[in-house]
């Protein structure tokens, strides 16, 4: 089971250095305001692409450009097949 620490904005202000050390060690911390989640502190990565995939802001391609060029008549998902 994955447990994420939750802290309020006040605790974040009072213990920022301790919480940031925990994040640097790999922990994810959820920040709340009046009990409602408003943000997450997550460990930084040097690999921006992996971070974007993990955040689900991008979806990795299933085909490479070479695959597409090898099968030019294959309809793309957003296109209808030719008549």
TrEMBL record:
One Pfam entry for this protein is PhdYeFM_antitox
Which GO molecular function entries does the Swiss-Prot or TrEMBL record give? Answer: toxin sequestering activity
Q: Give the signal peptide range.
A: none
What SUPFAM superfamilies does the database record attribute to this sequence?
YefM-like (SSF143120)
- What's the family? Belongs to the phD/YefM antitoxin family.
Q: What does this protein do?
A: Antitoxin component of a type II toxin-antitoxin (TA) system.
Designated name of the protein: Antitoxin
- The scientific name of the source species is Mycobacterium kansasii
């Amino acid at each position: 089971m994955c447990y994420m620490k939750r802290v309020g904005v006040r605790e974040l202000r009072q213990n920022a250095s301790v919480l940031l050390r925990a994040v640097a060690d790999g922990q994810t911390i959820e920040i709340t305001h009046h009990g409602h989640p408003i943000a997450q502190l997550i460990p930084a990565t040097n690999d921006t692409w992996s971070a974007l995939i993990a955040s689900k802001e991008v979806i990795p391609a299933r085909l490479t450009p070479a695959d597409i060029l090898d099968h030019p008549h294959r309809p793309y998902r957003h296109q209808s097949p030719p008549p």
